[in-house]
Write a structure and sequence with these properties.
Blueprint lengths: L1 H19 L3 H30 L4 H8 L2 H34 L5 H8 L1 H4 L2 H12 L6 H6 L8 H12 L1 H14 L2 H8 L4 H30 L2 H7 L9 H10 L3 H39 L1
Helix pairs in contact: 2-15, 3-15, 4-9, 4-10, 4-12, 4-14, 7-9, 7-13, 9-12, 9-13, 10-12, 11-12, 12-15, 14-15
């Protein structure tokens, strides 16, 4: 009986391996298609950006980057990201905690609203802020009377950036926290731990890598956002232009060397983000393996 069971298990594993195995030519073809796609849509465009940026030499490249308007665009990009990322971090943790740990009326509506920026065009999002805070908008007269400027100013750019980036942290944490369950938090509560103690000593250590991953994605989107920011910025050179908008202006002025120089800075930031993203994925996989071994 034991021998028969072992034979059946061996046959089952053999059948599974055969079902998952593919002929060598199929694997090679899929790999070739993948490499061709990456080369055409990733490697060649990146190479073109750096090639065009350096085509007129390092002196032109450096002068384009240290230009006053370029530095102002970089500064504004970093300011918008520095405000949007922490706010979205707080929102993402709070939303994920509420959705995964509690049952309440409107839970499904909250999940739908979190996904809203994925469904709405960034340009539409920018137009919504213009409709609300522009001179002819709902609050336009009140803002004008109190000398508060949101549209065509830094606050509008920050608001647009926050809108397009707020789902990323929450969307990373929700499935992670659902998979982890509530057992550890409930055990801490039974042992007399307060809400903050449960969060800092149980929840946060369990979600730290997913949280960092979401923050990296949020920061990448914040620095590269174009559509929503373009609508609310007014394209005021040296004042309300972020790096993507500054690249567009330089390109429209046929100043290709400077445009590609600033674009290369964005590309380097994107590559740096990919490096951090890869490290986080590696660390997360390593932590999962350690947890499985301990179990």
């Amino acid at each position: 009986m034991h021998i028969s069971k072992s034979v059946n298990q061996y046959q089952s594993r053999t059948q599974q391996k055969r079902a998952l195995a593919e002929p060598a030519w199929v694997r090679n073809l899929l790999i070739l298609i993948t490499l061709a796609f990456l080369t055409l849509f990733l490697f060649l465009p990146l190479a073109a950006v750096f090639s065009e940026a350096l085509r007129k030499g390092w002196q032109v490249y450096i002068s384009a980057i240290v230009n006053e308007d370029a530095l102002s665009a970089m500064k504004l990009t970093f300011i918008a990201a520095a405000i949007a990322v922490p706010l979205n971090l707080v929102f993402g943790v709070a939303a994920a905690w509420a959705i995964t740990k509690f049952n309440f009326t409107g839970k499904s509506i909250l999940i739908t609203l979190i996904d809203l920026p994925f469904a709405v065009s960034p340009v539409i999002a920018g137009l919504i802020y213009v409709l609300m805070f522009g001179l002819q908008g709902w609050f336009g007269e009140w803002l004008l009377d109190h000398d508060i400027k949101i549209i065509f100013a830094i606050p509008g750019i920050v608001l647009a950036t926050i809108f397009v980036t707020f789902p990323f942290v929450a969307r990373e944490l929700i499935p992670l926290m659902q998979a982890q369950g509530k057992e550890e938090e409930e055990a801490g509560l039974v042992l007399g731990a307060s809400g903050w103690q449960i969060f800092w000593r149980i929840t946060l250590p369990n979600i730290k890598w997913g949280l960092l991953y979401g923050v990296i994605l949020t920061n990448a989107r914040a620095m590269g956002e174009f559509g929503a920011v373009s609508v609310v910025s007014g394209h005021i050179r040296g004042l309300t232009n972020t790096m993507p908008l500054h690249v567009e202006i330089l390109y429209n002025e046929y100043n290709y060397a400077a445009a590609f120089a600033v674009a290369s800075v964005l590309a380097l930031l994107a590559l740096l983000t990919l490096v951090f993203k890869t490290l986080i994925e590696w660390q997360t996989a390593r932590a999962n393996q350690s947890a499985q071994i301990q179990e």
